[in-house]
Amino acid sequence: MADHFDIVIVGNSAAGLQALRVLRKHDRARSILLVDREDRPAYSRVLTPYFIGGKTERENLFIVDQAFYRELGITTRFGRTATSLDVDGHTLTLDDGAEISFGQLLLAVGSEARPLAVQSGRVSVLRHLDDADRLARFLPGARAIAALGAGLVSLPLLSHAPAETEKHLIVGSNRIFSRLLDAESAQFLEERFVAAGLQLHKRDDIAELRDDGRLALTLNSGKNLTVDLLIVGKGVQPNTDLARRAGLAVGDGIRVDACCRAGHPHIYAAGDCAEGADFVTGEPTVQGNWLTAVEQGEVAALNMLGRDCRYEGSLKNNISEIFGTDLAVVGYCGDDAPAARVFCDGANGRYRKLFLDGQKRLLGAVLVGESNDAGVYYHLIKSRAPLPEAAHLSGTNRYAGLVRDW
């Protein structure tokens, strides 16, 4: 006989964790089960490069401890994977054969890193804590490392490697962060990273890889690299198999409406597995950042409680520190924005670019060298108000340098 819970949440990262908090803030009576494939409390993936690079201890990665779930009255089944979902029967089956019946279900199952089809202990993605543990063993003694793909996994990892380590970045496109930034902002960052010791190989890829104790890489350009570790950061793939097999609508992710419902009145999706509307473009997208996951987890939880909460849409919101440079990318920062304003102070390494629509409302912002006010820009975009003059300045309100409008 199946165990029954009023609410089942599959996934124990940003979306699932926020949903738990919101549900228990408003309701202490409903029975809640949390299922997750990892046998541990929730932790921060954002901090794993700092742990791998020896900048923080492993225990600092954990957001909550086991007591958190007990105090909220949450039943947990860690180390278990959901293998099948019966939408009509309101039943979830786990990999140990257990059947769970539910009143409402939240799929917060995240995404997986796209792997490289190579069998080597010196080739690794970074998505889960086990990946971080493996990389932490290899990185400190590496004389040279390479990363494939110029996103928010590869570059932070390279930047946290020891200063004396030779660092190579292999990029298939013509710039770093090609899905995140416009060309000008990317070029500004590339110059800073190269000056910090990064060796950048653009419009290139790995043609051949051999593991002879060290990794011998031959690139399409003909270059040969010998490294001790290869980090694969070629993007992620939302975990949609469970939803697809259950008959839920799936595009790049599990398709959700403004209530974060997944095409069923009692099934929701949130976080890196969910495909919902982009706030700026209105187009369906999997945003894949922590803040979006938190927001969607909260919206899903409130709707589970019958509060009819609507989500206006997600925004890019990525903040990192790479080769000693603070970086924040908020909202839409594409080359085709109707207008932009650039503020550059090369002497202090500060750069910011604001992207505007035809009514001079803020669409997005790239902040380099100082990112403490990223939240201000996030709220300016969400408010759809005309950009105030004060927002043209840096966080210090004393920005000097080149200013351009076009």
TrEMBL record:
<protein>
    <submittedName>
        <fullName>NAD(P)/FAD-dependent oxidoreductase</fullName>
    </submittedName>
</protein>
<dbReference type="Pfam" id="PF07992">
    <property type="entry name" value="Pyr_redox_2"/>
</dbReference>
<dbReference type="InterPro" id="IPR050260">
    <property type="entry name" value="FAD-bd_OxRdtase"/>
</dbReference>
<comment type="similarity">
    <text>Belongs to the FAD-dependent oxidoreductase family.</text>
</comment>
<dbReference type="InterPro" id="IPR023753">
    <property type="entry name" value="FAD/NAD-binding_dom"/>
</dbReference>
<keyword id="KW-0285">Flavoprotein</keyword>
<dbReference type="InterPro" id="IPR036188">
    <property type="entry name" value="FAD/NAD-bd_sf"/>
</dbReference>
<feature type="domain" description="FAD/NAD(P)-binding">
    <location>
        <begin position="5"/>
        <end position="297"/>
    </location>
</feature>
<dbReference type="GO" id="GO:0016491">
    <property type="term" value="F:oxidoreductase activity"/>
</dbReference>
<dbReference type="InterPro" id="IPR016156">
    <property type="entry name" value="FAD/NAD-linked_Rdtase_dimer_sf"/>
</dbReference>
<keyword id="KW-0274">FAD</keyword>
